[in-house]
Amino acid sequence: MTRIVSIGECMVELAPSSVEGSYQIGFAGDTMNTAWYLRQLLGEDHQIDYLSAVGQDAISDQMIAFLEDAGIGTDHVLRLPGLTVGLYMIQLQEGERSFSYWRGQSAARNLASDTAHLVSALNGAQIAFFSGITLAILSDTDRTRLLDTLNAYRADGGTVVFDPNLRPRLWESADAMTASIMAAAEVSDTVLPSHEDEATWFGDADPEATLARYTQAGVKTVVVKNGPGEIIISDNENISRVSPVAAPKVVDTTAAGDSFNAGYLASVLSGKAIDQAVVDAAALAGRVIQSRGALMPCG
Ligand code: ADP
Question: Which residue has its alpha carbon closest to ligand 1 atom 6?
Fold first, then answer.
């Protein structure tokens, strides 16, 4: 049995329904989306666990039920009294989607508050996956605790995979964000950045510069996504490139990167070579962006 632990925040999503003025409830969040796709792609010989924190109220119960129905393990989701889950709302104005968030007080901000909880969640896992959003929601102390625990897990033979997923609005400053992202890269075996975001906040002139920055930080495998553009890979200093197949129509790019990450990890875990895993990842992301919403059944 292979076990993968995805670490982060799942939120309640309120999205416009087909009935004018009504909204439907869903659940989404970058690391949860990746766990959800991994569950679809991998067989029962793989356990996919979520490491997070929720409240003890009815909507937290509903989130746990959603994760369990999806086949994602919730044994390592803390249930904290007096807190609840974060929420975001999607609004459509003249066909354009905009997002509003209520996550400042969410329980998930405490997901790394207890070292023993982190250690037990990671115990025996082959892969720990987390993102820049996971880091952004934590206090400085908890962020350090998470990175230290991942470092120790890695020293014990675990593999750490990180998607920087830059969200400057969640950080107190751009400098705090870029410093934490590079600290996370230093404890990671694989980093899966998106060049467009990285160019804005790190000043990378091109995808090669993004690749070089992470390899120079000591990351063994770096896969630089770039929307519809060529993906550059560095694996043990061997550089290769994969072009995604152009999507005939792009409906909604939500979770393009999240599904890409899952497609990549599922193929690597199935024993495929890195370049083939990137081809598979791009194929999945290319399908996901052709339908509305973050989660597209694909198993
Ligand atoms: P993120 O969603 O994290 O910003 P990207 O926009 O870089 O990530 O996209 C992730 C992956 O999704 C890309 O590497 C590519 O494989 C796929 N993808 C994104 N946009 C397109 C597109 N227009 N056509 C085909 N594939 C795409």
Answer: 227
